[in-house]
């Protein structure tokens, strides 16, 4: 075990520096854009701890320390304490409902001195950890109902608690873990069904449901006719068709009776069903104006008028991408999304090269969570996804989110650095 | 490894596809669609209009007639208003609580965030006290602008006035004007609006989402500076104008004086007049209402809008046409026995002139002579050709700028009237009228009507021996003293120069020994002609037209004093004072003993309806009773001449107002 001994000699010997570099680059981009978003010509300094970019500087520095600490810990630590961490976050999620501070309609923060802790951010990490630990256990087959429901319970518990805050955005983040389950053997129908449901939901709100039902039936019959030789598949398609029709009829009900007013409005705005740009549609409209006005090369650093003159709301947190799009243009958007994609693909590669299932599953969990954040956050700023307030990883302002993303990522880096070692939860 | 290894590619594929989807969306928004950039600019850029100073207007000696004076508008941004001492504030700007609430509600309705005008045109003294304490009234601010001011309070109808634009003005200007802008409404202010208003500047200011200014957009690269309006030098001589207004005080009428060699209008008096300063400031609305209600209608621009039959002042023109036609020679004589028989009615003459030649005919204003000449002229080609001959005669009259618009640089100019053959066809039937039917035209009566400006212009033509320049009020534009091209071209009236001398000699005699001898100016050879415009509603209008000196004329003038009798008594003396003032800059003692003061102090205003007429209408020196038949078939026209004896005073005022309005619409 020469590898192992080398590993013990230098902590950072096997660290994937490329991922670390991507992480640092994204943090730096985030910090510059927060600086631009809240820039005030009267206080041109870079380090002013009363401002968001000053605080973000502290968050980044503390995150780096956190990252080093994680790299110094033993791999076993994460596996052993996965359940403990999970329980702690569940307790915190319950606590936040009791003692939490309500900000912007969400009871999501626990005040800690001058900072506020957001347990839901950390719940992502601990849930992924516990999920990885559970799925990597011997005799666990996700295709078996018992295993499946256990895994679903691990994911579902924090979701339920976060939904009570209520924080729809953070709740939906956990749905991204479907990729992990899929990778571990979950039937592809789950992915197909979820994709189909999203499409049908949007179509139902846009078009008359009768036409839609007719369309779905015709499409289903066509597919069945094409696949008439494969009885099994034909039957599945038939069932799918029936479920789709039922779903279409239930969507209106869900929309009218289950969704809350502000959620309906956000969906309406997204689908262009309402054009009230003054009130509810204001945010998305101004956000689109900011990004669209960036053109190819952007307006230049600190030159974004939309963000600088506060037309865009929450410009340093959920809508930070506006600053990127406005000041750096399409070029900047391509670079940023490229960096994210590079990071995600790198994470998938890291996950696949793990020898231990735990590390692999955890890696997929990290990639899925980050992917969901990136797509939904940027998607909402450009108006293709309803506004659900989730941060852009490493870039949005905020201590809890940066810390939790750092922990999430660096546990993976740590696991990867030790991939040659034989680790098993038992 | 794991049996589901291949699934990594599905997940990788989903990651890539969704990221690409975002990029495609971004490509569309950032590269293809331009609407976001426009929206971003309109979000952040506020165009602030920089108002230029309106151009001043000077007299011919560069004395200021109108200039700008700073006033202060109070503006309010409702959202910034915090609690303050409303009562004290109202007291300071001179409004009551109710007025405050009304104004404030209006501002809130306009926009709670954007500032709008709260109270207009605070005079400088109120501003001084308010500006010290404006910080006590958060949300309120003061913004300077300029209004017109008239140091000599003179030439109101000539200068005109400015007023706030109406929705229709904005529409017509294709969006050049914006609500609250000022535009020339009448007079020079209207005629030269494009030059006077200058060029507005635009400041592209950046604002944040709360409309707070954040500096210049693109460092002012798209800003334009305001360019002040052009300075206009008018041809008016303020000395003449003021003297004219003084002499015409308490009278209804006009004085128009023109420099024959250029067409420049030296005096433009419309009486009664008003103080142009009434048309600006906070009291403007009340003042306008008062002026509209004034039964003597001071807003009526008489020199170009009032129509008068020229009466005997037409005779020189009549003679010139006959001379040119070869109908008349200076030696032609007619015998005046005190009347001229036209068919079965007689045109009376004031005197028994006996054997009369052209000079005496003009000097003595002999009706018989001119009726005879006119009869011969119209019958030149025989009675059957009356219509053609008449039409030819009308064209020659029109050549003098009579019955057509002269093209003076003022809006609402009237064209006067020379009847057409068709007009007589309609009254008498085709070929049922003859020279005798229309004989009153020979002596300037009948349907003939001219504005005082046209009368003065005819004198210019006579003074110039056959041509005139378009009369105008603005002689130079801007620092480069540009003269409009149309004012530098001669209009030939088609009369050979040689025919003028005998006519001028006659006009000279008028002043030396004739009907205007009382107005002779020692040492100045004035040539003139009195006239009496018949007025079916009251006393006749006194007319006098003249030019002086005889050699190398410097001034041509027409004076009309309504309801004052014959031309020699009121109009001629007033004209003589103006002429002398212009040529000598002083007024000498007259052999006749007349003084300007006497004329200035006389009150000749016609009594208003309900009041007893002061004097019984009296037939003028050279008018004829017979011609009344002709004048009475056009009472509305006489109304326009602003005679105020009509019983239905309100109707009359409505008509006069309608007249102004109609002229407005023509513009």
From TrEMBL, chain A:
GO molecular function, one term: glycosyltransferase activity
Keyword Glycosyltransferase: yes
UniProt keyword Transmembrane, yes or no: yes
InterPro entries cross-referenced by the UniProt entry: Cell_cycle_FtsW-rel_CS, FtsW/RodA, RodA/MrdB
GO biological process terms, semicolon-separated: cell division; cell wall organization; peptidoglycan biosynthetic process; regulation of cell shape
Recorded topology in the membrane: Multi-pass membrane protein
One matching Pfam family: FTSW_RODA_SPOVE
PROSITE patterns for the chain: FTSW_RODA_SPOVE
Keywords: Cell membrane, Cell shape, Cell wall biogenesis/degradation, Glycosyltransferase, Membrane, Peptidoglycan synthesis, Transferase, Transmembrane, Transmembrane helix
Primary location recorded for the protein, binned into one broad class: membrane
Superkingdom of the organism of origin: Bacteria
Stretches that traverse the bilayer: 12-34, 54-73, 78-99, 185-203, 209-227, 234-255, 328-349, 361-388, 394-413
Protein name as annotated: Cell wall polymerase
Upper classification of the organism: Bacteria, Pseudomonadati, Bacteroidota, Sphingobacteriia, Sphingobacteriales
Record gene name: rodA
TrEMBL record, chain B:
Domain Penicillin-binding protein dimerisation: from-to ranges: 51-212
Biased composition (Polar residues): 623-635
Membrane topology listed for this record: Single-pass membrane protein
Enzyme Commission (EC) number: 3.4.16.4
Transmembrane annotation, as ranges: 9-28
Top EC category: hydrolase
PANTHER family recorded: PEPTIDOGLYCAN D,D-TRANSPEPTIDASE, PEPTIDOGLYCAN D,D-TRANSPEPTIDASE MRDA
Name the UniProt record assigns to this protein: Penicillin-binding protein 2
Classification lineage: Bacteria, Pseudomonadati, Bacteroidota, Sphingobacteriia, Sphingobacteriales
């Amino acid at each position: 075990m020469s590898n192992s001994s080398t590993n013990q000699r230098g902590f950072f010997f096997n660290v994937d520096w490329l991922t670390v570099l991507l992480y640092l680059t994204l943090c730096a981009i985030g910090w510059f854009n927060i600086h631009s978003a809240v820039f005030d010509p009267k206080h041109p300094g870079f380090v002013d701890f009363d401002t968001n970019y000053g605080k973000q500087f502290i968050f980044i520095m503390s995150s780096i320390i956190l990252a080093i600490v994680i790299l110094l810990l033993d791999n076993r630590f994460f596996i052993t304490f996965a359940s403990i961490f999970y329980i702690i976050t569940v307790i915190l999620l319950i606590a936040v409902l009791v003692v939490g501070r309500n900000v912007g309609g969400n009871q999501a923060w626990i005040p800690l001195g001058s900072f506020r802790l957001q347990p839901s951010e950390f719940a992502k990490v601990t849930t992924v950890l516990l999920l990885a630990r559970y799925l990597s256990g011997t005799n666990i087959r996700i295709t078996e109902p018992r295993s499946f429901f256990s895994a679903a319970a691990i994911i579902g518990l924090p979701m339920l608690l976060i939904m009570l805050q209520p924080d729809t955005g953070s709740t939906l983040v956990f749905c991204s873990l479907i990729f992990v389950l899929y990778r571990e053997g979950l039937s592809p129908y789950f992915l197909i069904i979820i994709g189909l449901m999203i499409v049908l939901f949007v179509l139902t709100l846009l078009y008359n449901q009768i036409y839609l039902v007719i369309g779905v039936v015709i499409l289903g019959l066509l597919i069945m006719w094409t696949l008439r030789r494969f009885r099994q598949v034909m039957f599945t398609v038939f069932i799918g068709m029936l479920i789709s029709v039922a779903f279409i009829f239930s969507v209106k009900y869900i929309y009218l009776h289950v969704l809350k007013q502000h959620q309906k409005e956000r969906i309406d705005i997204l689908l262009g069903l309402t054009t009230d740009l003054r009130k509810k549609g204001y945010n998305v409209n101004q956000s689109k104006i900011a990004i669209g006005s960036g053109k190819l090369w952007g307006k230049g650093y600190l030159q974004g008028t939309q963000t600088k003159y506060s037309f865009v709301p929450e410009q340093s947190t959920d809508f930070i991408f506006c600053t990127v799009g406005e000041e750096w243009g399409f070029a900047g958007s391509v670079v940023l999304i490229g960096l994210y994609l590079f990071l995600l693909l790198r994470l998938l590669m890291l996950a696949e090269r793990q020898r231990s299932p735990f590390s692999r599953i955890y890696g997929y969990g990290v990639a899925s969570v980050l992917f969901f954040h990136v797509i939904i956050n940027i998607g909402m700023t450009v108006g293709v996804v309803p506004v659900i307030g989730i941060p852009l990883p490493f870039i949005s302002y905020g201590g809890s989110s940066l810390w939790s993303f750092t922990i999430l990522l660096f546990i993976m880096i740590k696991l990867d650095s030790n991939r040659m070692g034989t680790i098993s939860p038992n | 490894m794991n049996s589901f290894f291949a699934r990594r590619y599905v997940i990788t594929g989903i990651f890539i596809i969704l990221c690409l989807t975002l990029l495609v969306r971004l490509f569309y928004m950032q590269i293809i669609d331009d609407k976001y950039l426009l929206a971003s600019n309109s979000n952040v850029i506020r165009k602030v209009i920089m108002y230029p100073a309106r151009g001043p207007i000077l007299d011919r000696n560069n004395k200021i007639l109108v200039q700008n004076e700073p006033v202060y508008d109070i503006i309010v941004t409702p959202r910034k208003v915090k609690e303050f001492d409303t009562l004290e504030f109202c007291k300071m700007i001179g409004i009551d609580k109710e007025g405050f609430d009304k104004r404030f509600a209006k501002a809130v309705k306009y926009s709670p965030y954007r500032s709008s005008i709260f109270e207009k045109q605070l005079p400088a003294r109120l501003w001084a006290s308010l500006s010290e304490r404006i910080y006590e009234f958060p949300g309120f601010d003061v913004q300077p602008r300029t209004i017109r001011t008239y140091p000599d309070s003179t030439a109101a109808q000539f200068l005109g006035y400015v007023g706030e634009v109406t929705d229709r003005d904005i529409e017509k200007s294709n969006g050049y004007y914006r609500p609250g802008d000022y535009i020339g409404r009448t007079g020079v202010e209207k005629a030269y609006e494009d030059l006077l208003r200058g060029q507005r500047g635009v400041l592209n200011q950046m604002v944040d989402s709360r409309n707070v200014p954040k500096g210049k957009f693109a460092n002012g690269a798209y800003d334009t500076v305001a360019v002040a309006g052009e300075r206009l030098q008018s041809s008016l001589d303020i000395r003449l104008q003021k003297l004219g207004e003084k002499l015409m005080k308490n009278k209804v009428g006009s004085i128009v004086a023109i420099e024959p060699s250029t067409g420049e209008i030296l005096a433009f008096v419309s009486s009664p007049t008003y103080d142009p300063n009434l048309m600006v400031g906070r009291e403007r609305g009340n003042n306008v209402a008062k002026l509209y209600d004034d039964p003597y209608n001071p807003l009526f621009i008489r020199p170009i809008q009032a129509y008068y039959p020229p009466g005997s002042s037409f005779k020189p023109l009549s003679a010139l046409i006959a001379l040119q036609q070869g109908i008349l020679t200076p030696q032609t004589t007619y015998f005046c026995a005190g009347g001229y028989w036209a068919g079965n009615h007689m045109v009376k003459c004031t005197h028994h002139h006996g054997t009369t030649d052209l000079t005496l005919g003009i000097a003595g204003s002999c009706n018989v002579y001119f009726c005879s000449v006119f009869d011969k002229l119209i019958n030149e080609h025989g009675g059957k050709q009356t219509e053609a001959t008449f039409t030819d005669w009308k064209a020659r009259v029109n050549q003098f700028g009579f019955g057509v618009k002269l093209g003076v640089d003022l809006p609402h100019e009237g064209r006067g009237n020379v009847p057409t053959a068709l007009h007589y066809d309609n009254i008498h039937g085709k070929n049922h009228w003859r020279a005798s039917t229309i004989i009153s035209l020979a002596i300037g009566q009948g349907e003939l009507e001219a504005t005082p400006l046209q009368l003065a212009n005819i004198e210019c033509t006579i003074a110039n021996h056959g041509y005139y320049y378009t009369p105008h009020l603005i002689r130079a534009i801007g620092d480069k003293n540009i003269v409009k091209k149309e004012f530098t071209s001669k209009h030939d009236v088609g009369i050979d120069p040689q025919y003028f001398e005998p006519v001028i000699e006659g006009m000279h005699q008028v002043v030396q020994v004739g009907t205007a001898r009382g107005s002779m100016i020692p040492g100045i050879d004035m040539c003139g002609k009195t006239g009496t415009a018949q007025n079916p509603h009251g006393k006749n209008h006194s007319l006098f037209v003249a030019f002086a000196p005889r050699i190398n004329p410097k001034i041509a003038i027409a004076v009309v004093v309504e309801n004052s009798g014959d031309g020699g008594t009121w109009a001629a003396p007033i004209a003589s004072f103006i002429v002398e003032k212009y040529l000598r800059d002083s007024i000498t003692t007259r052999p006749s003993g007349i003084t300007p003061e006497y004329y200035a102090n006389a009150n000749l205003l016609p009594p208003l309806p309900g009041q007893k007429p002061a004097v019984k209408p009296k037939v003028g020196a050279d008018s004829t009773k017979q011609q009344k038949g002709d004048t009475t078939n056009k009472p509305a026209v006489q109304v326009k001449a602003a005679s105020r004896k009509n019983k239905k005073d309100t109707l009359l005022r409505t008509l006069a107002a309608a007249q102004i309005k109609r002229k407005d619409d023509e513009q």
